[in-house]
Every structure is written in C-alpha cells, then in structure tokens.
Amino acid sequence: xxxxxxxxxxxxxxxxxxxxxxxxxxxxxxxxxxxxxxxxxxxxxxxxxxxxxxxxxxxxxxxxxxxxxxxxxxxxxxxxxxxxxxxxxxxxxxxxxxxxxxxxxxxxxxxxxxxxxxxxxxxxxxxxxxxxxxxxxxxxxxxxxxxxxxxxxxxxxxxxxxxxxxxxxxxxxxxxxxxxxxxxxxxxxxxxxxxxxxxxxxxxxxxxxxxxxxxxxxxxxxxxxxxxxxxxxxxxxxxxxxxxxxxxxxxxxxxxxxxxxxxxxxxxxxxxxxxxxxxxxxxxxxxxxxxxxxxxxxxxxxxxxxxxxxxxxxxxxxxxxxxxxxxxxxxxxxxxxxxxxxxxxxxxxxxxxxxxxxxxxxxxxxxxxxxxxxxxxxxxxxxxxxxxxxxxxxxxxxxxxxxxxxxxxxxxxxxxxxxxxxxxxxxxxxxxxxxxxxxxxxxxxxxxxxxxxxxxxxxxxxxxxxxx
Length: 468
Fold this sequence. Notes:
By secondary structure, this protein is mostly helical. The chain is built from 18 helices and five strands. 54% of the residues lie in helices and 5% in strands. Strand 1, helix 16 (378-383) and strand 2 (390-391) form a beta-alpha-beta unit. Keywords: Membrane, Transmembrane, Transmembrane helix.
C-alpha cells in the first residue's frame, strides 16, 4: 500500500495541503480554493512533508509515499512498544497487530483514523495514521516514564509530542488524551506529588505550543458547525461493523476483575462514555472517539490471549478469536485488490471492497499551479487540487471558509439550465476561472459556445474546457 498509495477518500485534500505549503510556507491560504484563510490541515506533520518536498525537489506524491512509509513504521513500532509495557510475553505483539488490523466486524467500514486493514490501506499516508502511530508511542512512553521515575525534560518532551498529535489530527488527539488519562489513573503505584508537577508542566507546554501554532487557531475548532451529519454513519450498523470486538470486551472484563484501575479498561470506559454522550445528544462527531474503544479492546484481547489469563479461559478464548480473525481476514480482504489481481486470490472476489479512484494527472499538461477550475463533478472537486489548481467549490467540507455556501450555490448556478449566458460569464470572472471540467450532461454553456474551447478528455468522458 505504501508503494501503490491507492487514490481514494481524502488523499486529495492532503496532497493539496502539501502543494500549498511547498509553494508558500508563510501564507499558503486555503488548500482547495483560492482564498486567503487559515486551515486546520496545516499541521506540523504536513509542514514537515512540505519542507522535505521543498528541499529535495520531490513531487507531492513522492513525499506522500514517504509519509506512508514513516506512518507504517510509526504505527507498527508504536503498537509493539505499548504492548511491551503491558506484558513481556512474545506472542502479544503479533497478536495485537492482528487484532488491531482485523478484529472489527463482517461488514466493511472504512474511516480516516480507524486502524482496520482496509482503512489503513487507503489512509496510510494521512495525518490521522501519523497521529495514531505517535499516540501508541506516547502511551508507551508515559507508562515507561511512570515506572522509571523520569525527570522533567522527558516529561516536557511528552508534552511537545502531545501537541504535535493534537495539531496534526484533532480527533486522534482526543483519543490520545483519553489514553494518557487512563494510564495516569491506572498507574501503580499512584504517582507522587513530584510526578504530578512534571505532568502539569508537560500539559502546560503542550497548551503553549497549541496556542502558538501560527497556521490556525486550534480552539476555534470547538465552535465550527457542520460536523454532525457527516459523522452520522458512525452510529449505524454497530453489530455488523464492530461485532467481533465483543471478544475484546470479554478480555477487558477479565482485566477489570483483576484490577479495578486497569488502564485498558479505563481507556475503554472513557471512550464508551464520550461515544454514548454523542449518541444521546446527537453530536455524531463524538463518534470519532471509536478508536479508543477499538484499541483498548483489541490490545486487551491480544495480551490475554498471549498468556495473561488462566489456561481455562484461554482454551475458550483462543479458538473463538481464531475464528473471529478469519472472519476479519475475509471482511478486510478486499484491500488486497488495490495491489494485486483478484484472480490470484479468489476469496477477494466475494469480499466487500471499497474501490479506489483513477488519478487526475491527465489535466496536468494543461492546467497550471494556481489556476481555478469550475466543476461540479465529485471526483474533479476532490482530486484536481492535489495537482496544484484550485476549484470554485471546495470538494471537502471547509469550516474555516466563510463563503463556502456561496461558492456551492454559484457552482450549481453555473451549471443550471435556466442560468443566462451573461450570468455564467459573470461567475467565471468572479472567481477568475481559467478551466471548466464537465460531462456533457452537466449543463453549463451550450455546446460550441465561444466562451470555452475543448482541450482534453478524461478517461471517463469528462471534458477539460479552457475559458477563452
């Protein structure tokens, strides 16, 4: 997946973010549209990638391949380090990797920040994967710091890392904080006054970094609207999508019976509380806390399977988990179709699959960096900014863009059949549009109108038209 980097989902917005930063580190503007506004996508991780691109001269997609490789290493080593703080049994780490990537449900469900195999296949280069990998390391480092009585400087380092996670992917930042809180409250022995002072200093440093970040105001995200309906699916079909996690809940119950302050049990409880609160209040965006439930249950099951539970419990738990992992293998097997022919693996043909998209590089010989495109096509809106141009309407929800609704309205008006030619020309001038991407059925100018000149055709029959 690191080599292939499948085109789907949010890859376009992250590629566009690197493009804007590599061209203007000081004032990159909106990643998707030509507007001088801040964006939460300009995170420390994306800034690092843009600097790599700027210094090396590598293309944006080459840098995203590098990001995918780093993210994969961070995630796998993070799981390893965290599990090693919970048990020394050698089987626990590979079991944890299997559970984290495969143990969900029998209905495929992918989402950024969710560490299932198919989600990772599509999101391996995303900031959410980077943040989750760092989160695992943070949890491991905090457990080590508490057990070895680390000094002030390492704790300040933990605070700085937490700020990077919070700024890089805010939802994963919430999950990270819940995990850190669970580890603190589950620490044995209970941390002394000196340790709490170091923790307070680490939190203070993290807040300072977050407040000082120049690319966007972190706490202004608390007041943005429009998040709820997007996240409504996180509360649907829970049994079919996440039913296999019930085995992890059994493992958590076993751990809770042994230790009422078990950090994994507390982690799960905190995540479940936030998730339930979101469902009760219809704040569906709270569903992004689900990785807290996933990770705590999956890691707990891996640790118990490796030998922490008694032999009698393992006689039941091991074969049932083996069957559950096989079901998980089938439900996630569609991800293999991104990198190999399904003919070589017959089971993939019947497995649920999320299809990748075709690239949009066919416009690059004509459309230059910073050109504005008028289009209402789903894929053009989400993919073309990855190659440098802007669109009139943003392809992804943009909560910092105050005229987003107007841009959407103007795009619909441009292609509407009852819009006059003069009004269409006015809209092109309003946004300094240089190109139009459309299918024949989209509407817009009448065929052969002198305002546009056909330049190229896409693989699916869409036309690239130059504004004359």
